[in-house]
Amino acid sequence: MTYDYAKERPGVFTEEGVRELLEIERIARLAIEKSGAVHTSKLLAVRDSSWRTMACIDFLEEIGRIRCCTKAGARNDWIYF
Predict the structure, then answer these.
(1) Most buried residue among 34, 56, 79, 80 by CB atoms closer than 10 A?
(2) In whole angstroms, what separates CA 17 from the centre of its chain?
(3) Residue ranges per domain, the chain?
(4) Residue range 8-27, pLDDT digits in tens
(5) CB-CB contact of 43 with 57 (8 Å)
């Protein structure tokens, strides 16, 4: 099974998904304020790396709360600021 944002995006808006989204955003903001960037693996560690976790990260990028500066290589190696 491969990750599909369009299929996973609705899960972001469930009660549990919103909790996860807010936690990921909080961790991303703290890391970005401290060091200027955050590694995908740090955001995936918030929860057990579910597809919904990836959808939360993609949603934050979609709405402009974080931006990806590298999209080369494995998804786990991307850097956001």
Answers:
(1) 56
(2) 12
(3) 5-80
(4) 999 999 999 999 999 999 99
(5) yes
